Amino acid sequence: MLVAAAFCPQPPLLVPGVAAGATAELDDLRAACDAAVAGLLGAGADLLVVVGDAPVVGPYPEGAWGSLRAYGVPVQVASGEGSPTLPLSLTLGRWLLDRRPRPTAPVLLFGVSADSAPARCRALGEALAARAATVAVLVMGDASARRSVKGPGFLDERAEPFDADVARALADGDVAALAALDPDLAGDLLVAGRAPWQVLAGAAAPGPWRGEVTYDAAPYGVTYLVAGWRRG
Question: What is the rounded distance in angstroms from the CA atom of residue 179 to the CA atom of residue 110?
């Protein structure tokens, strides 16, 4: 059963050094993510799951590891042999966990592909929530990347209302609203979090949930949301 969830974005700039001189500009985002993860670990769940966008659907093996070398910093997350296998979302999720004292509960890193249908996402979430008596989930994903002309996808007027709907759903603990997100619209708006959010929707049903959004901004034309859910 799901007992808690935290929602964090996945910009490489979250890691000090990647942003170079702009590192301080994301101090508030970094602090919000750290607080959300601390609250998640405080739930004391039997299993901690990190869900993020990935090329394939399913769990990553225990020895999987990630790297940010492609973004200009020699940051390695976890350890392993050969080439790094974790996608960016799970690399940053694991990095956020590693900034806290090591959790006593086992950690499962779970990928979901961006084109996964909402119904499949919800089914995956239901299965994850059933893996242990109590489960906490860290959900990684950005909202729209089309909030300004300087954003990765240029400006799309639909981006702001879409992001506002997601922020409202996170603040209200609204499982149905997350489950109802349109995958086609999310794809047009370059939303990295749609599939992971809908996995969480499957894990979280039924509620009720108490939600709190602690960060909501689009500093580089990409909307970053940080939130936490507890059972209401």
Answer: 19
DSSP 23: G
Q: Which amino acid is at 35?
A: A
Whether the pLDDT of residue 81 is over 80: the answer is: no
* CATH superfamily label, 2-231: LigB-like (3.40.830.10)
The reported pTM is: 0.95
Look at residue 22 in the predicted model and tell me its pLDDT: 61
pLDDT digits (tens, 9 = 90+) for 206-228: 889 999 999 999 989 999 999 99
Return the pLDDT at 113. Answer: 97
In sequence order, which ranges of the chain are alpha helices (DSSP H)? 27-41, 88-98, 118-129, 159-172, 175-179, 183-188, 194-204
Query: Buried b vs exposed e over 3-33: b needs ≥16 C-beta within 10 Å?
Result: bbbbbbbbbbbbbeebbeeeeeebeebbebb
Answer for the pair 227, 173: CB distance below 8 angstroms, yes or no: no
Cis preceding linkage at 161, omega within 30: no
Query: Domain boundaries in the chain?
Result: 2-231
C-alpha span between 22 and 26 (Å, rounded): 7
Closest of 112, 138, 121 to residue 7, by C-alpha: 138
